[in-house]
Amino acid sequence: MWRLKAVVISFTVLWTTCVGLDMKFPPGFKFGAATSAYQIEGAWNVSDKGINIWDTMLHKNPSLVSDGTIGDVACNSYHLWREDIHIAHELGLHFYRFSISWTRILPTGFPNKVSKDGINYYNKLVNGLISKGIEPIVTLQHFDLPQSIQNLGGWTNPLIADWFADYARVVFSNYADRVKSWITINEPLMVCDAGYNVGLLAPKVTEPWLGSFLCNKHVLMAHAKAWRIYDENYKGKYHGKVSIANNPIWLEAKSEEDEELAELARQFGVGRYSDPIYSKDGGWPPAIEKLMSDYSKKQGFPYSRLPTFTEEEKKIIQGTYDYYSLNHYTSRVVRPAREGEEPGPWYVSGSKELNAILEAHPRWRVSDFKYIVIYPEGIRRQINWITKRYNNVSILITENGLGTKSSDMHDTARINYIHDYLEQTLLAIKEDGANVIGYTVWSLMDNFEWMFGHTMKFGLYNVDFTDPLRKRTPRASAHFFKNIIKHHSLDVPRPSHDTREIKYNNANSISSLYILIGLFSLGNLVSYCF
Ligand SMILES: *[C@@H]1O[C@H](CO)[C@@H](O)[C@H](O)[C@H]1NC(C)=O
Ligand SMILES: *[C@@H]1O[C@H](CO)[C@@H](O)[C@H](O)[C@H]1NC(C)=O
């Protein structure tokens, strides 16, 4: 019997080795690249554009950014949008994800005044993309909140849900006839936990108690109201899709005993921003609700720091999705903090509440920035977690990419990163049955990378920030990505590491590994059969 089993296993291995290792993407799988308004547009003071929280923060204190740069000009895409369409077309992108600047459309932040120039700018961009056969995917809010709204408490004020809905209504009414894919809010975990808790990003509110949790509830309400406006007024006619972009770091248990803690940490980081929308019962993840209630009591609060939802609010939020928008870059292992050890670090809020330590696995590759640890299997596990928890929802990867210090045109590290993360995505689709419908590189081009300024490069295209024309030049990764799109397959030549020339070799590390395994299995097969 065991012999028969061995033969079957060997045959299976042989089959996947010689025949089944198919690096093709499913038909209909789409490729794109992304940017955001503040990071590329510049033109912070043209026409009647209003001021946002990044304008304010960095004009007051440019030294907050690593290299003292600010986004006043950035890639100057407000004037050079034709260049952006040109390079998106050169790559053969199926779609281009960009964001709309709220204060370019509504200078006061409110719908009392709509900017003609603002509306026209995005009309030109959307029409230009469509004329080249590139689908626009539009984010309504990517970190650049109107200062007027921040003055009223920003995301900690519950009224923001209606103000955001007002803004969404104006945007939809102008572009829904041509834009079919929407993202309401980018990375609420960063907006809330980095903006209203640890004070890492604008508006840099440092408030460890309520800020991030109020924000958490209000981004969900804002998203839900916008989703419902689209659903009621436009979906029947234009059949578009609306989602919210979450950015989970994959969290892996350090050892088997830590699995429960790791799962709580996942629910703290991703579940708080997803369960109320995607889960069967709506509302917060029950384990997190209980944890926060107990923890708040211990801290002397007469109520939970995690605000409650009324039944009506729960219903407003639940089910407001058409797909899951996933931004993913990196992973961590989780273990309990030891006696006397500070829990943390900040980037999963909840490390304090969970008394957890998040750290890089010693075997994972560290990138130029210690924040990004490279663990390609993490994306497969994250996809599987979402697939399982949210009933096989279709997933669009809306950001993935590597930040480097070097602006080298031969960006082998970026090529390997994109290759390896795409390979794991393929495995999630083909081996695990996940419903991943597309993949987006962050970013189309180098841009203003928030607190890292221009020191962190993410671009498939290099941008020369000393050139008034901000010349965009393709890196080796651009050629690589273009080839993947063209062949709809990951089985394309990778530019080799060790030469200044872009030479191509068929460096498919996995195939040589599989050939070895194949030979080994063949050996087995022969010895078992004869
Ligand atoms: C806009 O800001 C730039 C600096 O980024 C400045 O040189 C220019 O004078 C400003 N223009 C207006 C109209 O205020
Ligand atoms: C998810 O749905 C797709 C079709 O949409 C299906 O092919 C796949 O088997 C499903 N996967 C799981 C894990 O249920």
Give keywords:
alpha/beta, three-stranded mixed β-sheet, 17 strands, binds 2-acetamido-2-deoxy-beta-D-glucopyranose
Provide a descriptive summary of the structure in words:
The structure is a single chain. Mean pLDDT is 91; it is low at 498-519 and 522-530. The protein has 18 helices and 17 strands. The chain has 530 residues and is an alpha/beta fold. Helix content is 42%, strand content 14%.
Q: According to CATH, what is the class?
A: Alpha Beta
In percent, how helical is the residue content? 40-55%
Widest sheet: strand order?
Answer: 1-2-3-4-5-7-12-13
Q: Which molecules are bound besides the chains? A: 2-acetamido-2-deoxy-beta-D-glucopyranose
Mean pLDDT: 91
Number of domains: 1
Q: How many distinct beta strands? A: 17
Which helices and strands appear, and what pairs or packs with what?
Elements: H1 2-20, E1 30-34, H2 37-40, H3 53-60, H4 77-91, E2 95-99, H5 102-105, H6 116-131, E3 135-141, H7 147-150, H8 160-175, E4 181-186, H9 188-194, H10 211-233, H11 235-238, E5 241-246, E6 250-253, H12 259-278, H13 286-298, H14 311-317, E7 324-327, E8 331-336, E9 356-359, E10 365-366, E11 373-374, H15 377-389, E12 395-399, H16 412-430, E13 436-442, E14 461-463, E15 472-474, H17 476-487, E16 494-495, E17 504-505, H18 509-529
Helix pairs in contact: 1-18, 4-6, 8-10, 9-10, 10-12, 15-16, 16-17
The structure holds 2-acetamido-2-deoxy-beta-D-glucopyranose (2 copies).
